[in-house]
């Protein structure tokens, strides 16, 4: 413990939050949580407010992802909390250490029908690592400490606390938590040695590294392990950019031949889910390296699955001194496939077409995005193209909804990214379907002087639904949007700026204007509705 805190519930909460490195809150105003605002206001603690509670949670998640420390959303009772559950669920799937603090109807009147009276905890418990109602004012700091310790302990994830009205508004003295004391999970050294030996002696090994490598601070250790063992690396999620695009072991375009011909596939810091064909890499052996035993795949029989601190596991792989096979021929073959894939992509990204193909949008973006730009994907079909054509130059610069696939992350992620990086380019890539979920929060960005660039791929359809439904049934329903809708006019009405682009040649100048604008700026690109990202169904 670290001394005594005095004040109302909001004062106690703020002191505890600061002890865990939280430096801002995201919220939508509600009377149940006024004391937290009061404490923040008195302490000049930044408050960023939004137009929908999901954006507050997504903003907190962006901070948690980018800064690898807790993000905070404060929501009012009842619908405030339930509106934030999609954000909580995304944070759960993304292993993001987010704390959501909710207001709660007064305990002394519970069952009498107070405003917004509902028990939140059973609703959020399945998608949080810790969920509780704080029973007394003096318990607030300790409960925050327990919640944030759970959120920061691998496998990381969100936590939830709600505070009854009288608990938050009352005044007490309380002991302050000293700050994070996060346990480190040690992997079985025999399992780590087995994983290292499999990679070192394989004829055709592959590494796939995901978001937990970034979240666990293991980027340098991943590079060291790949270089020591000479294994080609593919990435997904926030693992993207772990090895820069020019690194001799960094691959993106040769994934099909790599996974088709590999004899050992090591998946590190990401689940064996639909994005990785559910870990079905037969006849290759699977090595699944995870940050906690709970993350071992139950549906795949891995050759070995070390579970523990990823930095230590990867450092041990790099230090492997046993027998090894020369992988030069394998790497050279994949490099030829990679170069051929890049040539095909370059042709697609330069294509002159009417209407505009999504690939051309990303070809123009590649020319103007800085190496440290934060790129945010919020969409289905349009953002699938982003994953193919954009290659982050640095780790920790790519944000997408993750495996839960929740649309509407865009404006909240943009807010959290801009708060994190006041001087970097922040670019949101948004499908026109996704625009319907959060575009109103452009007003929040304008009002709080948080400029970002928004590029909308506007094809007037739900692309990931329309084309597959037509293929299945010969028709489609509920898959059309207004063609040519002026999303840039919406942003202008909210105080930002923007323009619509219909010709490929106009893309570059429009993007230049957007990044120079200094206000939220939307480039509304009319794209080809007949162009669908090639993929098999992810429903199975």
Automatic annotation (TrEMBL):
Family to which this protein belongs: Belongs to the TPP enzyme family.
Domain Thiamine pyrophosphate enzyme TPP-binding: 378-525
GO cellular component, one term: acetolactate synthase complex
InterPro entries per record: DHS-like_NAD/FAD-binding_dom, THDP-binding, Thiamin_PyroP_enz_cen_dom, Thiamin_PyroP_enz_TPP-bd_dom, TPP_enz, TPP_enzyme_TPP-bd
Keywords: Thiamine pyrophosphate
Ranges for domain Thiamine pyrophosphate enzyme N-terminal TPP-binding: 9-121
CDD domains: TPP_BZL_OCoD_HPCL, TPP_PYR_POX_like
GO terms for MF: acetolactate synthase activity; flavin adenine dinucleotide binding; magnesium ion binding; thiamine pyrophosphate binding
Natural source organism: Pseudosporangium ferrugineum
Name of the protein this chain belongs to: Acetolactate synthase-1/2/3 large subunit
Gene3D superfamilies xrefs: 3.40.50.970, TPP-binding domain
Entry-linked SUPFAM superfamilies: DHS-like NAD/FAD-binding domain (SSF52467), Thiamin diphosphate-binding fold (THDP-binding) (SSF52518)
GO biological-process terms attached to the record: isoleucine biosynthetic process; L-valine biosynthetic process
């Amino acid at each position: 413990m670290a001394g005594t805190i005095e004040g109302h519930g909001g004062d106690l909460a703020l002191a505890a939050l600061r002890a865990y490195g939280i430096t801002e809150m995201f919220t939508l105003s509600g009377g149940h949580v006024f004391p937290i605002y009061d404490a923040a206001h008195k302490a000049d603690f930044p408050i960023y407010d939004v137009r929908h509670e999901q954006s507050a949670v997504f903003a907190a998640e962006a901070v948690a992802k980018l800064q690898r420390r807790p993000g905070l959303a404060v929501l009012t009772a009842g619908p405030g909390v339930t509106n934030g559950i999609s954000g909580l669920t995304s944070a759960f799937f993304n292993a993001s250490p987010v704390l959501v603090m909710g207001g709660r109807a007064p305990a002394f009147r519970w069952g009498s029908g107070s405003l917004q009276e509902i028990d939140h905890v059973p609703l959020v418990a399945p998608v949080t690592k810790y969920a509780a109602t704080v029973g007394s004012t003096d318990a607030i700091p300790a409960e925050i400490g327990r919640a944030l310790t759970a959120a920061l302990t691998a496998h990381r994830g969100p936590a939830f606390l709600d505070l009854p009205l009288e608990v938050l508004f009352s005044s007490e003295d309380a002991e302050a938590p000293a700050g994070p004391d996060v346990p480190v999970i040690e992997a079985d050294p025999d399992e780590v040695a087995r994983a290292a030996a499999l990679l070192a002696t394989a004829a055709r090994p592959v590494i796939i590294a995901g978001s937990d490598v970034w979240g666990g601070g293991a980027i340098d250790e991943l590079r060291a392990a790949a270089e020591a063992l000479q294994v080609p690396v593919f990435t997904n999620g926030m693992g993207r950019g772990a090895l820069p695009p020019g690194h001799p072991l960094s691959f993106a375009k040769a994934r099909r031949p790599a996974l088709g011909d590999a004899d050992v596939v090591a998946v590190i810091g990401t689940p064996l889910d639909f994005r990785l064909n559910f870990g079905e890499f037969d006849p290759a052996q699977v090595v699944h390296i995870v940050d906690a035993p709970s993350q071992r795949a139950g549906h795949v029989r891995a050759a070995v699955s070390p579970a523990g601190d990823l930095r230590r596991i990867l450092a041990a792989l790099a230090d492997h001194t046993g027998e090894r096979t020369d992988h030069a021929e394998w790497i050279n073959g994949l490099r030829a496939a990679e170069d051929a894939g890049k040539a095909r992509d370059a042709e697609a990204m330069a294509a002159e077409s009417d209407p505009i193909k999504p690939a051309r949008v990303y070809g123009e973006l590649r020319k103007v995005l800085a190496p440290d730009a934060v790129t945010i994907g919020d969409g289905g079909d349009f953002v699938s193209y982003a994953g193919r054509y954009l290659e982050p130059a640095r780790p920790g610069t790519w944000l997408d909804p993750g495996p839960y696939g929740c649309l509407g992350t865009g404006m909240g992620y943009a807010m959290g990214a801009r708060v994190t990086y006041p001087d970097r380019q922040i670019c949101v890539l948004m499908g026109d379907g996704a625009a319907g979920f959060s575009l109103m929060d452009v007003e929040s960005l304008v009002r709080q002087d948080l400029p970002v660039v928004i590029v909308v791929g506007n094809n007037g359809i739900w692309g990931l639904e329309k084309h597959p439904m037509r293929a299945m049934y010969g028709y489609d329903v509920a898959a059309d949007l207004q063609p040519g809708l002026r999303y840039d006019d919406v942003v202008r009405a909210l105080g930002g700026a923007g323009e619509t682009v219909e010709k490929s040649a106009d893309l570059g100048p429009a993007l230049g204007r957007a990044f120079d604008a200094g206000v939220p700026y939307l480039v509304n690109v009319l794209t080809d509705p007949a162009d669908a990202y090639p993929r098999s169904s992810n429903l199975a």
